[in-house]
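Work Package 3 (structural annotation) set out to generate three-dimensional models for the target panel prioritized at the project kickoff. During this period the team completed the workflow that converts sequence records into discrete structure tokens, so that structures can be stored uniformly alongside our sequence database. As a representative example, we reproduce one entry of 860 residues exactly as it appears in the project archive.
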Amino acid sequence: MILLSTSPVLGQVADSKLAPRVAAAIQRSPGHQAVRLRVRDAAAFWQWAKQSQPEMQLGWGPIGETTLTVRHITVKQLAALAASPLVEFIDVPDRVAHDERLLNGADLTVNGLRAVQRHYPALTGQGLTVSIKENPLDATDLDFRGRLLNTPAGTVIASAHASIMATLIAGGGNSGPAGEGAARQAAIASSSYSNLLPDANDELIKLGVSVQNHSYGTGIENYYGLEALGYDQQTRQLPTLLHVFSSGNSGTAASSDGLYKGLVAVDNLTGQFKMSKNSLAVGATDALGQVAALSSRGPAYDGRIKPELVAYGDAGSSDASALGSGAALLVQQAYRDSQGGTLPPAALVKAALINSADDVGRPQVDFVSGFGQLDALGAVRTVLEGRYRFGTVAQSQEQVISLPVPPGTAQLKVTLVWTDPEAAANATKALVNDLDLAVQGPGSTQWLPWTLSAYPSLDSLAMPARRGADHLNNVEQVTIEQPTAGTYQLRVRGYAVPSSPQAFSLAYEVTAPGLEWVVPSSLLDVRPDQPTLLRWAWAGPPAAGRLDYRPVGQASWRTLAAGVDLSQRTYSWVAPDTATLAQVRWVFGSQVVVSDTFALARPLPLHVGYICPAATLLTWPATPGAAQYQVYRLGATALEPFRLIADTLLSIVPSQNAGPYFAVAPVLGGKLAERGATANLFEAGISCYIRSFLAQQPIADTARLSLVLGSLYHLQSVQLQRLGPGGFQPVQTLLPVTRLTTLFTDLGASTGLNQYRILGQDASGQQFYSDTVTVQLVRRHELLVFPIPALVGQDLQVAGEPGAELQISLYDALGRLVRTATVNGALNLVATAGLRPGVYLLRAAPAGSTALTRRVILVE
């Protein structure tokens, strides 16, 4: 028996019932802590608690009848709970979760998500629901329009982090191309991470959730607690639901407890819920596939492989997890649409994602990058091409699947995944049902899965993967490089299946040598004069090639680089500063692989020229070589084509009822290029032609007014007017109007308050006005005091010559000095608080000039 503490109360309690740090926390602060319990029999426990511990504050938790919380617990009560045979485990309660995002940046080309959109445009996540478990997201975000299912009860503050996660997973791109996520038509549900246990099954079923994203952490925790148990249990109960966790951003830290205590830069996943077996943990890489130093890494507390995957997360593992969730939705839809509407088991989705991953880091598998870099296109093709099998095995049973491998195959890869039953809380090893994978070749040669040393030393944990029987993980993978042609047998055996037969999913890949372009793509423009990462997939032995470029229509190709290693999979290219359709190609050996035709163009900003009662004008700069422009408007959930025109401006009349959101894209050589950011008419900051009309200085010795127009289209004239005794009178008229910005000077303005407006007229005779603008004119040796009369307590405003210092004195009717001040500015305040109503004299003495006196009246 391992003793928890030298405390006489806790000294005889076995630690197998207690989560790490529970006892220490309660001893430090008894009566102020809470714990979470898992009990064997709810009714029996309640009866026992009422009789033996009547002071105990109990409350049921959201996971079900066997989990509850105890608040304000004492050391004595903790010992009683731990000693009770009705209590299975005592865990920490909900902790404060934190978002795991540090920087900014997102690129859906890195992990093949844009490639899925290019090759399978029907895969959009439509009909599926993703749940974002954290703080509530912004319900007004344009990119979620028409697809939000709920907002968690009691949440009022929208989280920018949650909104970014939802955008990466399922953003509609309504705000612009950067707002488009992996599964842009999926429905979005919210859930709060104030509860770290799984959400209620009924709620998830009601919302139709098939993927839940968890981009948060609570600190490094290394044990199989009630949260990990709960997520494993829920996946077994809801077999088509996949939970995706960020690995964390503590990759350089060490755990303070557990098997790997004190070992730096290993075993630092942030939260015991990430120890679950049936979920997917995703770490972060940069754009070139290098694992970020801060990305949390494995092993799991018991030596299992965690994270299973890595993905691009320039902002941390939160983004990586979101991309993993988006890819999972695409795999689910690919299966559903090809299998009559049935969703795949989570084990198959996980197998497809892991089996298709690109190897990064140390060869095969490691505790830093798991099984490799997410490749959404490969995972989707795994399902669409039927490269998977299902099966069930019991103890000592074996299922054999035959697989033909053709000559010239570069690699055979097979991944086995099963949804394992939940283990007991605080289990030393989480695996319950142990299956074995082996691949047998045509010559009876057998290949076992890749395994890693779980021995608790840094040298052992960094050792290369080696083949062997795996009795820790519910994910096993076999790879064979350049396999001999013939029939292979994929063998799955029930090594230790103590309970009912275990179902499994198997994904495989028979990779032919070759190269496939990923970027550029027909869906995405390449920006002129900016670095672009060209991307390609390569399968085969080491080889070098030549990279060429040409504008479409030109016969000759221009060499960009020669002798490039194809296995690098990326090349940074600064495209020419031009607008055209173009292609790039690889030339290696006798093979030539040409990319999609792509647009080399800048995104077009959309400007609002005016918003007048009769019409609204949209304008944009011309793209050289563009014959037409496609204008979009926002529909119920997404941007829709509105007008295809040859001009660079569009007039929209109210009867078209087009709404406030618009975007535009050029058409180059008959190909629609990428659209620019979406403009919102309500936020355009413009009225009828007038963008702004302002006084250059509201208090000045000369009245100058600045007018900025949104457009000159169909504008006939503008006139500056000043308010006089008979109304507004013309000061200056521009006919015609030749520029967007004009500075008016009114030399006829009077000392004191002057009020101005703009009168405009368009070509049809329709008139429009600006708001009224005021200028307090103060000439040299002048003094203005207002308001007169003023209320007692209201500050007097004193305007003198701009930039001149004033000595201000305020006298009452008896000549007594009641206020003094020294000010320096065009407009100054003199307080009247504490003065009585009546008549006062304000005297201001500019430096080097005669004092000026003004009468002031204060009233109640």
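The first strand starts at residue 33 and ends at 39.
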